[in-house]
Amino acid sequence: MAKVYNWQLGREMDYRFEQAAPDWQFAAIFNTNRCLACQTCTMACKSTWTFSEGQEDMWWNNVETKPYGGYPQHWDVKALDLIEQANPGGQSWGGSAGPEAPYGTYNGATIFDAARMAGTGQQAVGYIPTDEEWSAPNIHEDSPVAGAPLSEGAALPVHKTWFFYLQRICNHCSYPACLSACPRNAIYKREEDGIVLIDQSRCRGYRKCVEQCPYKKSMYRPDTRVSEKCIGCFPRVEGSDPLTNGLPMETRCMAVCPGQIRLQGLVPVEPDGSWKVDADNPLYYLVREEKMALPLYPQFGTQPNVFYVPPRWVPRPYLKQMFGPGVDDAIAAYERPSRRAQAVLQLFRVTQSIIFRFEVIEGPKVSEVNVNGRSLEVFDDTVIGYSRNGQEVVRVTVKEPFFERPVQFLNSI
User: pLDDT digit string (tens) for 173-215?
Assistant: First the structure.
């Protein structure tokens, strides 16, 4: 195996292929605190890409209820257990956070390390889900952990009775396990945007991608006998949709979200796979500057490019095994956001055009609130989002404007 640098782990790791990086990387942030579990995103994806015969169980986008839900069921528990079996008790984080290691250093085994330790002969540890595990995308929806009566269990900082919604698409990882697993080299990562695709003319349906993707976002289609996966709505990202006049456009699941929990874009990438410093890119700013959004199971080692603002009310140990050791800082950054972050958070789901750069125009102070015993000043700043060509595509304020329509008729709606 070659050695590659994984900035989320703060160290080098083993991978099948030599270090390579796209010019830009498809990335997204999901704010779990806002999700309604309305499944609008799920159905938008389904009705666009997986509505055909043979795709009945394909849900490239899904929203599952944690801690009990999952699609396929138990996908994360089983992946974590395979790593633990190969390296018992060895999964830990250490060191201090810094520019090269924003979450410290992961000292445990990745899925690639675990395969080597276990002597499986595979590129990564994995398994093929059963048909039953694929059968219920909404299993255990809204099922809480029972810790106390609801009247007693809903106080911050941690609820005694809790659940939360986890929104999932393909992470378009920097070091995809599906790509390294494929014996046909049918899976590739695009140079222009880092989107991971399957060349179905080369695929022979061995299902190694299904087996070794720890997130289980590569799926087998029985009627065509090839694998399929989320394609990152690459025609929209390319700017092929006439709605935005040739400008890169958010994916379907992002663009329809009524809870405004999603922000998707492209970030420039260094040759070693880390993100280029660009504090005016909203994704870079929230992930690397504010550290408000975290990767999902970074210990898997694939360097996923979908990030999450963790839910505020969930026990910290559960969140730390899911998002890594940056959870406390991420929640603190979200609970009491900086003035600039307050403005950037307004950019979630306000335009279908991908925002490459933002600018904040300062406005007056409008309120001061108490957050966990500390004062937080709120300013009515204006944030402007710009497209790839520098064109302004959106302008919103921190304080949402209120419009009162004059009544012209008694039955006016």
Answer: 999 999 999 999 999 999 999 999 999 999 999 999 999 999 9
Q: Tell me: domain 2-340, CATH 3.30.565.10, correct?
A: no
Nearest-angstrom CA–CA distance, 1 and 298: 20
306-309 and 24-31 beta bridge pairing: parallel
Please say if the pLDDT value at position 123 is more than 90.
yes
Give percent above pLDDT 70 in the chain: 98
Give the span between the Cα atoms of 256 and 122, in whole angstroms: 39
The per-residue pLDDT for range 283-321, each reduced to its tens digit, is 999 999 999 999 999 999 999 999 999 999 999 999 999
Give me 399's structure tokens. 């304080």
Q: Residue for token digits 């992946």?
A: 79
CB 303 within 8 A of CB 8: yes
By three-state DSSP, how is residue 228 classified?
A: strand
What is the token pair recorded at 20? 């390579």
Instruction: Please tell me whether residue 36 adopts helix, strand or coil conformation.
Output: coil
- Model pLDDT, residue 413: 59
**Alpha helix locations (H) across 6-72?**
40-49
Amino acid at 34: R
Write down the pLDDT at residue 362: 98
Rounded average pLDDT over 389-403: 93
* Single-letter code of the amino acid located at 206: Y
The tokens 């204006």 sit on which residue? 382
Give the residue from 35, 59, 63, 38 showing the smallest Cα distance to 47: 59
Q: Is the dihedral of CA 246, 251, 252, 258 positive or negative?
A: negative
- What DSSP designation does 363 have? -
Domains of the chain, by residue range, sit at 2-340, 341-397
| 363-388 CB burial, b ≥16 within 10 A, e <16 | eeeeeeeeeeeeebeebbbbbbbbbb
Which amino acid, residue 214?
Answer: P
pTM score, whole prediction: 0.96
